[in-house]
Amino acid sequence: MLWGVTFGGAMQVPKTDRQQARHARVIEATLELAAEGGYEAVQMRDVAARADVALGTLYRYFSSKNHLMVAALAERTAELQQRIATRPPRGATPADRVIDVLRRATRALEREPAVSSALVTALASLSADDPKALALAGDIYETIGDIITIAMHDGEVPSREQVIRTLSHVWLAVLMAWVRGWMPASQMARELEQAAELLVHP
């Protein structure tokens, strides 16, 4: 996922070093513009100019601005997954470990609030007429489930698959609420921890 772009559910991976470097520049430019001015600051023409790629080339990889930004969010989510795999969550029970992961994810979001808000806004703005972006959003959701699975490890969790699916829903819902300004970051963290405590039994 880290280097891939989803097209209708199929992953197109840049094959050459040059393609990978171009892809990395595009994602970096997207994140820089989001940091500078949020969602509205990310425009396809500006991304192309900053990444030094042709606008037509950018549109060959990304069907829309939202598709591009969701691709950046997919990379951020995959990076979180890699960090958690490298430094496993701590805790004596599955619930403790899930809470540790959720805390780490929340801190990462808070470090770059403008970027986090922009990327989640793009995710929330997806529509049915952008199937490429929707397919990539599905990959993000799957990665979130994988992260929760890593946290649970081999602990005994009743209705394990249903719990993971429900926690994934809660994670995305609370994230949307934070981005929309409906709740502060501190409440977002509490809501996630309470959901983990309720759903993931020791």
Report on the structure:
This protein is mainly α and 202 residues long. The chain has one domain: Tetracycline Repressor, domain 2 (Orthogonal Bundle), CATH 1.10.357.10. 72% of the residues lie in helices and 3% in strands. It contains 9 helices and 2 strands; from the N terminus they run E-E-H-H-H-H-H-H-H-H-H. It has helices at residues 17-37, 44-51, 55-61, 65-86, 94-111, 113-124, 131-152, 160-179, 185-199; strands spanning 5-7, 10-12. It has a two-stranded antiparallel sheet with strand order 1-2. Strand 1 (5-7) and strand 2 (10-12) form a beta hairpin. Helix 4 packs parallel to helix 7. It is elongated and about 50 Å long. Residues 1-12 have low confidence and may be disordered.
